[in-house]
Amino acid sequence: MNLLGIDIGGTKMALSIGNELGDILVDQRFPTDPDNPQTTLDHAAGVVEDLLTRAGLTIDQIDAVGISSPGPMCSKRRMILETPNMKGWAQFKVGDFFEETFNRPTFMQNDANGAGLAEYLFGAQKGKDLVYLTMSTGIGAGIVINGEVLSGTNDLGGEVGHITLDLNGPQCGCGKTGCWEATCGGKNMADQIRAEIVSGKVQTAILDEAGGDPAKISMKEICAAVRAGDPYACGRWDVFIEKMAHAVGMLIQTLNPQAIVMGTIAIYDGDLFIPQMIERLPKYAWKGGMDVCTIEPSVLKNIGELSALAVALDGIRKREES
Is the CATH number of domain 3-118+302-321 1.10.443.10? Predict the structure, then answer.
């Protein structure tokens, strides 16, 4: 089976041709124009032709196209509804473009759902009930239960980053207060720490790790300072771990999954918080749920490309079952 995957991001688009085993035959990335989807997609169509040539295939040999995109989006209408980093893409029918251009069955999901499907189809926890957590700029979830992605009534399922953990917590970009993402999302955490440093309220090695430039502070510098034992960084990290345990405990209580797989920060610095978080979970989840749930970093490489391929493969499966 040959699948065409299209992973749309705010800064880049990744296209790939792969198979049902998750093997990527050829791939290519190029910058996304956040204001002009037509220009970006026209370029993507040319890249697809190049990938087909490199793979020794024709478009008729592609069984399906899968699109992984930022949300909020609509999987049925196959469009991005709105996204702050890609304002020009709002309401643009991305799925229609590719289906009309290539005349192949085309399916679309948000990127977190796509990643959850990739973990279910190709990852270390393949075939299990699982939650994939994006742990990058923001926090989202791809939830796969009984082989089905939980996308919700209008594709808002899995927006776990906006579970409220503390009504008195920091303001979130979504407009609510005290969201999980507002406390533990990489960008929010870095922004809050940067503001405290600039105000002169704290002295911390985080700034040293950033070369003295507050603008360069990110989770990478925060984690480095934690590893160095900086008191301020370790204090902030302790709050991070506690909030992670709180939210993950809620997922275990609600979904009773076999696995929770984490991306990005967990892949690079999971040793700093996953074991400690698991130690704190009994405050937030029952033992029975914890005992059957594996919590680990993702082992998948090229998660964006694999997410799009997984969306295509899942779409074919659903079509055959209907």
Answer: no
Indicate the residue type of 132: Y
Q: Is 232 helix (H, G, I), strand (E, B) or coil?
A: helix
Position 84 pLDDT exceeds 80: no
Give the pLDDT score at 83.
79
Q: Residue 90's pLDDT band (boundaries 50, 70, 90)?
A: very high
- Looking at residue 6, its pLDDT comes to 98
Domains in the chain: boundaries? 3-118+302-321, 127-297
Residue 182 to residue 189: CA distance in whole angstroms? 7
Of 2.60.40.10, 3.20.20.70, 3.40.50.1240, 3.30.420.40, the CATH number of 127-297 is 3.30.420.40
Is 151 in contact with 71 (CB distance < 8 Å)?
no
Q: What φ, ψ does residue 18 adopt, rounded to 5°? A: -145, -170
pLDDT-derived band at 145, boundaries 50, 70, 90: very high
Query: What crossing angle do the helices spanning 231-255 and 219-227 adopt, rounded to 10°?
Result: 110
DSSP of 246-287: HHHHHHHHHH--SEEEE-THHHHHGGGTHHHHHHHGGGTS-H
Are the CB atoms for 253 and 286 separated by under 8 Å?
Answer: yes
Q: Is 0.90 surpassed by the pTM of this model? A: yes
Q: Say whether 127-297 and 3-118+302-321 share the same fold.
A: yes
Mean pLDDT of 45-54: 98
Helical segments of the chain, H only: 37-55, 94-102, 111-122, 180-184, 186-198, 205-209, 219-227, 231-255, 265-269, 274-280, 287-291, 303-321
| Beta strand pairing call for 139-145 and 148-149 | antiparallel
Instruction: Determine if residue 22 is left, alpha or beta; phi over 0 gives left, psi from -120 to 50 gives alpha, anything else beta.
Output: left
